[in-house]
Amino acid sequence: MTLTFLFFDFRVLLILFIIGCIGLSIAKIPFRKILIVFSVIFTFSLLNSVMILLITPTHGSELTESYTAFLHVGYATITYETLFYAATLSLKYFTLLPFTLLFIYTTDPSEFVSNLSKLGIHYKITYAINIALRYIPDIQSEYKIIKHAQEARGAAFEKGEASLWVRMKNRVLIFWPLIIHSLERIDTVSNAMDLRGFGKKDKRTWFYTSKAKREDFIALFAGIFIFIVAVYLKLNVFQNFWYPF
C-alpha cells in the first residue's frame, strides 16, 4: 500500500494493481464486498477526474512540458496529457483498493492493535485504530440499508434503470445520511467511553495477544527490503509523472 503513494507512474501502478488483484483472489474475499467498495471508488474517481479536467485542463501538460489539444470546453482546452494524468490518478486510487481490502478482511483488529501497543504506541491511538477497523463492516451495512431505502422510494441505482449520471448522483446522495449517521455513532461511542473512565490510566492490558513467529520476521524484513528498493527506484528511475506519447 505504501508503494502506491510513492509512485505516480502508470506502469508501476498497473503492476501493483495486478499484484493486489492476485492477492484478492488468493484471499478469496467475497466479490460482493469488493463490488461495494469498487463502486464507491469508481464514483469518487470519476467525479475527481471530471473536476481535474474542468478546473486544471492543462495540468498534465505542465508536468510533461508538452501540449496536445484534445477538446475545447468553453474557456479552456483539455489536453491529452491531462487526460492521461487523470487516468493515472484514477489508477492510483484503484491500486489502493485491493491492498486496503486485503488489510481489512485478513487482519484481526484486536491482535493488530495489541501488537502496535507492544511497539510503544499509546493505547488511545491503538484503540482508535481498533474501533475504525471494526466499524468498516458496519459502514458497509449502513450503506446497503440506505441504498435499499432509497430504492424503495424509487431511486435508480442499477444499470438500465436510469442514465449513468442519474445513478452516480443517487449514489453520491447516499453519502450524506451515511456521514451523519457515522458522526452520531462516533459521538455515542465517545460518550460511552468517557462514562467508563477511558483514558484515566497510563497503561492498559489487551485481551488478545500474540507472539511474533519466524514468518512474521521474514515478512518484516522482506517488507523493509522492498521499501528500500522502491525508494531507490523512486529517486533514480521513476522520479516524475510518466507520459508515453
Automatic annotation (TrEMBL):
Subcellular location field: Membrane
Which InterPro entries is this protein grouped with?
Answer: ABC/ECF_trnsptr_transmembrane
- Membrane topology per the record? Multi-pass membrane protein
Where do transmembrane segments lie in this chain? Answer: 6-27, 34-55, 83-105, 217-235
Q: Does the keyword rRNA-binding apply?
A: no
Q: Any keyword NADP?
A: no
Known Pfam families for this protein? CbiQ
| Entry keyword set | Membrane, Transmembrane, Transmembrane helix
**GO (cellular component) term, any one:** plasma membrane
What is the protein name for this chain?
Uncharacterized protein
Record organism: Bacillus thuringiensis DB27
